[in-house]
Amino acid sequence: MLKTIINLEPGKKVYFASDQHFGAPTPKESKVREEKFIRWMDEIKEDAQVLFLMGDLFDFWHEWKHVIPKGYVRVLGKIAELKDRGIHIYFFVGNHDLWMKDYLEEEIGCTVFYKKQYFEMGGKQFLLAHGDGLGPGDKGYKRMKKLFTNPVAQWFFKWLHPDIAMKVALYLSQKNKMISGEEDKAFLGEDKEFLVIYSKEKLKTEKIDYFIYGHRHLPMVLDLEPKAKYVNLGDWISYFTYGVFEKEFELKTFADGTKKLPLR
């Protein structure tokens, strides 16, 4: 099992955020949320050593050879500013930005991951992933992901004019409930939450202190045995939640958020 070891400097913290879905439901409405996220990044930049962006930063993202989606200039600029300050930026590709290639790596210097990763921080063991496709169930989405990641399908898609491709992709992203997550907002119970089931299975063979995921949108922290915690980071659509780790992990709501965290 390969893992990355991060030695935290005194007074420094690790931050986590997921599922911003910038661009949805419209560019105008998205900008309000983008501004909040930028203010949050301004707030954390003084004590952040590492920032994990855990997937679906964009509601849809596709990179052609010489073209990327329009917009997000201030968000990307702020991420670049944090990187230039020496903050390590790790980006996990989600199901909405799974066609990410090398733009963030080459232009900003982020490290981009396409699969789950293991980290050791502050003596604690972490398993990090966006979360899509892990565990049992979710079969409809898994079939859809196979189609989206199929090299032939990707080859055909890249030859669409970007204006047409973006229009089709954004429509599907918002209207298809399997993709948007609209069908998956309520807590289903530990015996039905596929990421909880996946985490418990992992604990049978691996020592993990924190399982941290995006994808699910509903913010929650659950105690697992033995002394492990399952974390879903929530989103920046309804909850404006984020994680922070120094010696222990905390799930917090940004002050500009519009909803309180549900109790779990």
TrEMBL record:
One of its GO terms (biological process) is lipid A biosynthetic process. InterPro entries: Calcineurin-like_PHP, LpxH-like, Metallo-depent_PP-like. The keyword Transport does not apply. It comes from the Bacteria. The keyword Metal-binding applies. GO terms for cellular component: membrane. Residues 13-218 form the Calcineurin-like phosphoesterase domain. This is UDP-2,3-diacylglucosamine diphosphatase. It comes from Chryseobacterium elymi. Keywords: Cell inner membrane, Cell membrane, Hydrolase, Manganese, Membrane, Metal-binding. Pfam families: Metallophos. One of its GO terms (molecular function) is UDP-2,3-diacylglucosamine hydrolase activity.
